[in-house]
Structure formats: structure tokens, C-alpha cells
Amino acid sequence: MASDRRRGVLAAACVAALMALSAAAALFIHSPRLLTLYVLVAIPCAWTLRQCWRPRSEPQSMAPAAELTPDRRALLDAAQTMEARLENAPIALFRIAHAVGGGEVTPLNASARRLLAPGRASDPHEIGRLLAAQASGSRALVSYETERGTERALAAVSELTVQGDAQRLAALMPVESQLEAEALNAWRQLVQVLTHEIMNSLTPVASLSRTACDLLAEVQAELPPDVNADLGTALDAIARRAASLVEFVASYRSLSTVPAAQPEPVAVRDLFARLSMLMAPQWLARGGCAEFTVEPQSLEVMADPGQLEQALINLLKNAAEATADTPQPHLQVSARLSRGGRLRIEVADNGHGVPDEMAAHIFTPFFSSKKQGRGIGLAMVRHLVHANGGMVRYARPVGQGARFVMTF
What are the extents of the domains in the chain? Predict the structure, then answer.
């Protein structure tokens, strides 16, 4: 208070001095020397008056960075570094308002905001409810729906108190691609072992059955007609089944013997043009249509052109089989850039679709929803797409039919 009083007295004195100088200057306006003297005297008064009107002091936090002590500068740098790391962490971080029960879920970094942004999670509120339902200190594998299909993530929740406010911190780490890669590798190893062992057993069976048929032809004149006929039928059945099994196992062996991808720039427009020329006439002959769209036309992807084309052909063949009984079959193949600049290729049809209880298994080797299916087509699609650095999902369609989504 005393300081404010002194500043007020000093300001009043300066104002009075300036007024006196202004009056004197009016009397001696024709004397340049006196006017110059008055101006020189007025400048200190005006500067003092300005200092009196300024705020008493500025907060310490507004001090220039150069005035910070080394310890405070180190703390500030550490805080800014930690904030940048959390903001760009590949794990989605969320704050749950209350430690017990539900509570509002707020994204804390860029990964969390991208997950909840339009075009990624199908229902952002569902992710919030999913995280709020997790117990503190728990780790669980959770699933949620995205525009690319069902994805899995590891959710970890911890409880903490910040300035007396009880809250929970939730971390969501997407693991779908890693789980798929591990599962695919495990299936490849299993298929490789099974096909190797089965082929080792089938090869001598097929060989011996052919040898037995040849021996039977040499001695058939010495055997009764009925015995000769029965032996011929049995040996022929063994030979045919052995040959069929060899062909069957060879088709599965292809899952574990796909050559390594040779990536190169692939123009999506040219790829779709080849697929349209190959597949569209079949759909037109059935009274339907097949549409291929690329936006923008300059889209490219780094992939093995042969493997990417084979993966799409497998999906197009599945779509043709799924729409075999549809009066006006329709196929829609589109390519565009999704959020984050990733290439998104969709293959959609208006067929009977995939039953919900089978959707989680359709990419599994040996699994097929068809009576005569071998469970190779979609397993090969997933293998080829993964080999080229992409992911493939079955996404529930808005209406009738099925929709598969590839992202690179």
C-alpha cells in the first residue's frame, strides 16, 4: 500500500510539472532555445509518469527464458519433452474421470483422438464404455468395431489421484496386425508339417496301389472272376483316393510355399483395368454388373503386382460364388485414400453374405462355409496381403451381401 501511495504522489508531481512546462512553453513559444530546454525537461517527467502507470510487477512465469535458473530450465525442458512423447506415443491414452464405476472418458494424445475420429471407430462411445468397464490394475484383450472390421487391442487401466481428483488412466494398444501375423505364421508352420507328413505316407500308398494293379493284371487269369473283380475295384479305389489326397494336400502346401513378395510401384488404375477385363464379362453374362472405381486416378501402392492381383482375384471369385443365386448380381470394387494416407481397397457384393457366427473364422485355413470348399481361398488372400505389408478384414455391410477391406 505504501508503494502505491508513493507512486500516486510521484505521478501527480509529474502531471503538475508537465502542465507548468506547457504553460511556460506557451509564453515563450517564439524562443527556440527555451522551447528546446522545456522539451528536454519534459522527457524525464513523461518517462517517470509512464513508469508509474505500468503494472507493479509481472508474474515470475512470464520472465524471459534467459532469466530462468538452470534447474527451472531443466525442469521445463523435461516437461516439454515428456508432453511431446506422450502426444506422439503409438499407444492410445485415455483419462477416465472417476476411479470407481463409469465416468467420462477423455482422449489424452494423438493416437486416442485418431481412434475416436470419424471414419475409424464405428462407435466411439462404445470404446469409452468398454474402457470405463475395465477394473483398475487390469489387463485385458478387448475388441471393437472399426470401418475396417473388428480389431483387437490390449487395454491396461491404472488408478491415480491428481491434485485430489481420483481418476483412472487407460492405455489401449492395437495388436490386431501382430496377432494376425503370429497366427498366420503358426498356421504356415502347421500346414508345412502336416503336408510333409501326409505326403510321406501317401506317396508309398499311391505307388504300391499302382504296383498292385499291375500285378493283378498279370495274374487275373489265374483268379476266380469274382475275386478278380473285387481286387480290381479295391485297388482302383485305393489308387484314386491316394491321387485325390495328393492333389488335396498339394493345394494346402501352396500356403507355405508362396515366394517372397517383390514390391514395386503398382498403378491401381491399371490393376483394376486388368481385373475388369478378366472378370466383368462373367458378371454381365449373368445379368449383373461389375464396377471398378479408383479415386484419384493416380493412386499407387508398393506391392508385388502378381500377388496383389491374385489376392483380388480370389476375393472376386468368392463374390461370384456368393451371388450365384442372386437375380441381379452386383460387384463393387473401389480404391481410395483413407485417413492417414493409407490405401483402402474394398470388394463388396450383394450376395448372401457371411453369417455372424462364421465371420471370425473365414480367414482360417481348412475352414470353409461351402460344402465343397477347402478353406484355402481367403487364407491365401490374407497370406498374400500380409506378405505385402497390408491387412485384410471382413467388414459388415450396411445392407445385403459381403464386404472385404484391404488397407496398405
Answer: 2-53, 72-174, 179-253, 264-407
